[in-house]
Fold this protein.
Amino acid sequence: MSESATPQNFDLEVNGISYPISADQGKNLLSVIREDVGLTGTKEGCDDCECGACMVLLDGQPVNSCSYLAVQAQGRTVTTIEGVMQGEEMHALQRNLLDEGGVQCGFCTPGMIMSAHALLDRNSNPTPEDVKIGLSGNLCRCTGYAKILAAVEKTAAE
Amino acid sequence: MSLNEAPKFVRADGPDKVTGSGRYTADMNMTGQLVAKFRYADVAHARVTKIDVSAAKATPGVLAVLTAADVPDLRYSPVVPDRTLFVKDVVRFEGEIVAAVAAVNAATAQAAVDSIVFEYDGLPVVTDLEAALADGSPIVHEGWESYGVSGDTVQRPNVASFSSIEKGDIRAGLAAADHVITSRYVADASHALPIEPRAVLAQWEGNKVTIWTSTQVPFDARNGVCETLQMPSSRVRIIVPHLGGGFGGKCGFHFEAHIAALARASKRPVKLVFSRREEFLAPDRRREGMIVDITTGVTNDGTITAREGWIAIDNGAYTADAAFFPQLAAMHVAGPYVSPNVFVESSLVYTNHQPSGSVRAPTAPQACWALESHTDEIARTIGMDPVDFRRKNTVDEGLEGPAAQVYGEIGLRRCLETAVANSAYGSQLPENEAVGVAVGWWPSFPGPSGAYIKVDADGSGQIITGAQECGTGSVMTLRYLAAEELGMEPEDFELVYQDTSAAPYDTGATGSQTLLNNGRAVIEGAREVAAQLRDVAADQLEAAAGDIVLADGFAHVSGSPDRNVSIVELAGIAAEGEMLIGKGSGTPPDYPTVSATCVGDQGVAGWAGPQFSCHAVRVRLDRDTGVVRVLEISAAHDSGTIINPIAAHGQVEGGITMGIGQALSEGTVYGDDAKQRNAGLLEYKLQTAADAPLVTTEFIEIPDPNAGPRGAKGLAEAPNVPTAAAIANAVAQLIGEPVRQLPMTPERVWAVSEGSSS
């Protein structure tokens, strides 16, 4: 058996909780989040930084977790889709995506929400063009993007 | 709440999907689970000389290695049974599976796969459709005559299925024309590409297997496992967790049997998750490449006298569900136009490419692109406005289509007028901008479908349905139908779906059929429960059951709203005796018969619930680079009655975006070795949010009496149909002639532009 010759031990903070991780130093952040931390809301769509389904926030910045080494995330804060809810309340992005019909199959949705979250964090008053550019790293095959863009614009306007 | 009052439609599965708590197949894990990996042939045409898996079997941590020798020796597939689970003697495309491995982790499984010795003698590859049809071509399936095809399927060497549609006298019709216009168009293959790569997890308990799988068609998947592993359906259960899109790519039976067989051999749960590259290469489902020759005869006043077509469709190496493609493509090349004389021949041609299969409106976007580009060529030739030409020649109520079906009230011409009126067609536009117009059509697919409805003691309802949700929202809509029958709220109902052992049969998320067929089943089941509720209420209110009205959560006596009892109370009473349980399937609408001569008939010449559409697309061309940008799309669709507006708009917007990709960037590039050269999202470009045009949609709501609930027709596939065609017509206006290849990449547009200006 050839997997994980020397596991690396480190702590990883995800959604405000610190997890002790023992994983191969070559393991990507996405796999550690899904397999070691046990949060499966973050999706793998391409393992190639092309689709954005694995988007998480690292110290508030959007990162394709498929192409980021988990060990490099130690000492930093990771936010996944499971950390977006505000207590028992949905974040406005989540609510507006549902209200506007921006969710179909839902597989791109977590990554899309994380990118939108990062966009609104750095620009609370984005133009429609800003929103398009901010989400252009997240592929959606269902919606044609229109209702997703509308949901993000509505959130920004609230 | 009445459906028409529903201002917004919020999905029952929405909270799962926006919070990350929803489970997709790849998110499921079982104790003791092994990882599956496949060894692919990685050669497109070859005769096998050696398969040696001994090193793989001896690898520590490997619990099962399977090849063709380990499964029943049979060929499968609907209509044309030409497929085997594993490579046997001949490899016919690069993604064929030589062996399957189950091991304790991915690295071990991959090492075992790499250790498999696979040797072969290469055979000449068949890649060109016309060469494949020529005498002396290498034959992809030696012995094809013995395959035992079903129905009226017609086969020829290297042709899996041939169909023709003939009406009137084509020679006389062409002779009567003032102009005869002939065009050739060639479309590349493309991909469905759901963002969720497929996954399968199988676990045996005793002699039964449960398979969690990302399929659009759970019952097809079950039947495939039953057929290939020789098991009764009572021992195979398919459960689909949330499904991350499909677009046809996850229709059909794919890898469920491989994983079930690995799980049986290893006595462990086994899980397969595809990489994006595998998703490109291995499934029997890509959109088919196509060559279309069209000839149309017209008189000087723009009347069509004859239409002739010749179509070659790239089947790839195996037939999957594609046997009906030739007839369907023939309908689209003849198109929604009135012509007294029609003759179209259409062949599904074997090659050594990945197999084709139903991807969102199979054959239609390519064939429509060819036909509608040709239609604009006709209009240019005779000096007629292309919209006027369509006004004059499209099918309408009382008129006869290409297979001689006579239509009832249909909305094609209203779609044309609406889409054009909502666009900038005919206005003065900035330089390098133009508006192209195209019309399209697509059938609805009536079929059997079932559901159970129950209302529990506390008044909570359940809809237990065989239907499959792939993202469209059509399963979500079922709650509204049940609620209205029972005077309850949609939120009162839980949906139990995507489980073959829980619910009656449904065709699945395919053919835009869920609302059409399962909607009928749910309504019938809910009516059974409504009758039961009325009986209980009649006892309580001392009235006749026929006088009981169910509304707003209460049963009341007609004309006396104060004589009422709540449905919750009735449900509690019923739970003590005759319980509230309904079942429904209903009778599917009829398929119209047609009088045209249909050789190789596959049942898709007579269309129930025909859907019509028109898209008017405004584009801008960068002449220096050939880059086409889509700015605005005005869409009008006749899909009958619209029951769930927000989902309907979502289908149109999503289908349009997929159509833009197909028009401009999405095409599979094959090497001379018949292997894909752009099997990744870096090389195969999808549309992004930054590309999203402004889409305006209007629905022309004409209830179809021979379709679904309230006269609803299908919708999910139709928006894909005329998008590439409309873009092409805008581009042709700008560069003076059509780009005769799809996708219309910048290189191709630039080349035509340069050629026509030099």
Q: What stands out?
A: The mean pLDDT of chain B is 96. The first helix of chain B runs from residue 14 to 19.
